[in-house]
Amino acid sequence: MKTQFSKRELLRRCSKIKLVSLDTDGVLTDGGIYL
Q: How many other β-carbons are positioned within 10 Å of the β-carbon of residue 11?
């Protein structure tokens, strides 16, 4: 499994759940998306 697209793909697929999940991982900033 790759982890490069995983962050972008997951963000687009579960952007709603990622908003909270990524927030803990420190990937999300200002409630935005990981560029």
A: 20
> What is the number of structural domains in the chain?
1
Q: Please, which contacts does 3-11 make with residues 24 or more away whose CB atoms are closer than 8 Å? A: 7/34, 8/34
For 13, the domain range is 1-35
pLDDT per position as a tens digit, 1-35: 555 667 777 666 666 655 555 555 555 555 555 54
With 0.90 as the threshold, say if the pTM is over it: no
- The dihedral over CA atoms of 20, 35, 13, 21, expressed in degrees to the nearest 10, equals -20
